[in-house]
Amino acid sequence: MIAALLLAAALPAAAAPAKTNWIKTYPMTAYRETWTGELSVKKLDEAMPKVVAAVEKNEGRLTQPLAAFVASADARQISFVLPLDKAKKTLAALRKLGKSPEPAVRALGEKIPLDEVRSKLQRLSREKTDNPVAFAQVPLTTEIVDELIEHLANVEAVARTAPSEVLWNLTVREAR
């Protein structure tokens, strides 16, 4: 008897099915990374139109008009958004205009697990369709499930349609 208990304790337990986290939050932004860096140029006034052109050539866009960014006599801070797959090419283009060390890169969140979101949507929708009488008896539960379905549908739409982008904060300085 004791040997059987010891043997049972030594054997790995059967893996319990993973529980679904129904309240999990998903990133709803297209930004996957933020980049922060500097670019040293010979003449700031001459370089800025070229910087903007390099960004735009790589499908980027300034987050506000150029004149609205903070500037001093020898530096200007700008922010722009561009597709993640164009970021390295943009860095190479900026390096043709001046010196730029590797930018600091910070991930903003995991990629939305589309299969997980779709699975949850299907399970909730099926449960609601298959059990209309039970849902009619608990209107608050129906409201909660409807809200979850709406939220998950929005998450799925973002995951399917939003491109992965980089938000890049760049300080352009005139070299001394």
Assign the CATH topology of one domain. Answer: Alpha-Beta Plaits
According to DSSP, the number of beta strands is 5
Low-pLDDT sequence parts: 1-11
**Average predicted local confidence, pLDDT:** 86
**Secondary-structure class:** alpha+beta
Folded structure, characterized:
The chain is an alpha+beta fold and 176 residues long. The protein has a domain of 89 residues: Alpha-Beta Plaits. It has six helices and five strands. Strands 2-3-5-1-4 form a five-stranded mixed beta sheet, covered by helices on one side. Helix 4 runs antiparallel to helix 6. The longest helix is centred in the last third of the chain and has 23 residues. The chain is elongated. The termini are far apart. The N terminus is likely disordered.
In short:
The chain has 176 residues and is an alpha+beta fold. The protein has helices at 2-10, 44-57, 87-95, 114-130, 132-137, 139-161; strands spanning 31-41, 61-62, 75-83, 104-107, 165-174.
Topology:
Elements: H1 2-10, E1 31-41, H2 44-57, E2 61-62, E3 75-83, H3 87-95, E4 104-107, H4 114-130, H5 132-137, H6 139-161, E5 165-174
Parallel strand pairs: 1-5
Antiparallel strand pairs: 1-4, 2-3, 3-5
Helix pairs in contact: 4-6
Keywords:
alpha+beta; 5 strands; Alpha-Beta Plaits; 6 helices; elongated
